[in-house]
Design a protein that fits this description.
single chain; alpha+beta; Glutaredoxin
Length: about 260
């Protein structure tokens, strides 16, 4: 078996090492049951190990290059999976449901979906930027989907927001959002009762609806869609079902992504 020198043709050596490593990993687990002709001999495996060891001693950057290549491949695979998921759920990500809060132009052609947790500090911080974006872009609509991912307090706050929508539609939802997202007190059912009163809603009805079938089904649908697109944190933004940006993001980055996915 012929191998390249570790001092030369590093661009070609890297994929060779990665491929060899993959073959060794495969033969280690399956070689005992495979055809002997398809396996390396012990002497060949030892030769491979020695060459890899010497290559890493001579040029340690090979390892960092290999790690970078593996990360790049993982990122590419993740992006491909994300694109596939977005395409599969395009309808759900480009048109609001009857129970989604919508900022901006409800009939706008540029759609951003925000998945958010009302207890998430980054979700709270980005609210003024979302308002600003919809003021500046009259063709923009931002669909808000509440997902409780931060434990029981988040679930209580999320239930209250959806119950506010069930009771008062868009207006009731945004009034409740205004008090919930600016409240520093730990969410409890009684606290939601107080905030509902502050928002001008029927507090008794809201508390009753929080654990009702309609609120539960809305939150479950939001969570199922979030899982389907591989969401792993809040906030997460989806732009015209083409691009996902997870986590905290600046006003300028949001504006740029909106322009790119118009």
């Amino acid at each position: 078996m012929t191998f390249l020198s570790p001092r030369h043709n590093r661009t070609r050596l890297l994929p060779t090492l990665l491929a060899t490593g993959a073959m060794l990993a495969a033969t280690a687990g399956a070689g005992r049951a495979a055809d002997a002709q398809a396996s390396f001999t012990p002497a060949q495996r030892q030769e491979i190990v020695e060459i890899m060891r010497n290559a890493l001693k001579t040029d340690p950057t090979i390892l960092s290059d290999a790690i970078a290549a593996l990360r790049s491949n993982a990122n590419a695979a993740q992006q491909n999976a994300a694109r596939s998921a977005l395409e599969s759920h395009r309808g759900e990500l480009t048109a609001p449901t009857a129970t989604d809060g919508v900022l901006g132009n409800a009939k706008g052609q540029t759609t951003v979906v925000e998945f958010y947790d009302p207890r998430c500090p980054y979700c709270r911080k980005v609210l003024p930027d979302l308002d600003r974006l919809t003021r500046e872009n009259r063709d923009l609509r931002i669909i808000e989907k509440v997902i409780p991912v931060l434990g029981q307090p988040s679930l209580i706050a999320s239930q209250a927001l959806v119950a506010a929508f069930v009771q008062g539609g868009q207006e009731g939802y945004f009034r409740m959002q205004g008090v919930v997202m600016n409240d520093s007190v730990q969410p409890t059912v009684e606290r939601m009762r107080t905030l509902a009163t502050q928002a001008g809603l029927n507090a008794t009805q809201l508390v009753s609806d929080m654990n009702g079938a309609k609120v539960t089904s809305i939150l479950q649908a939001n969570m199922e869609l979030a899982r389907a697109i591989g969401l792993d944190g809040t906030p997460t933004f989806v732009f015209n079902a083409r691009q996902i940006i997870p986590g905290a993001v600046s006003y300028d980055d949001l504006k740029k992504a909106i322009a790119q996915n118009h």
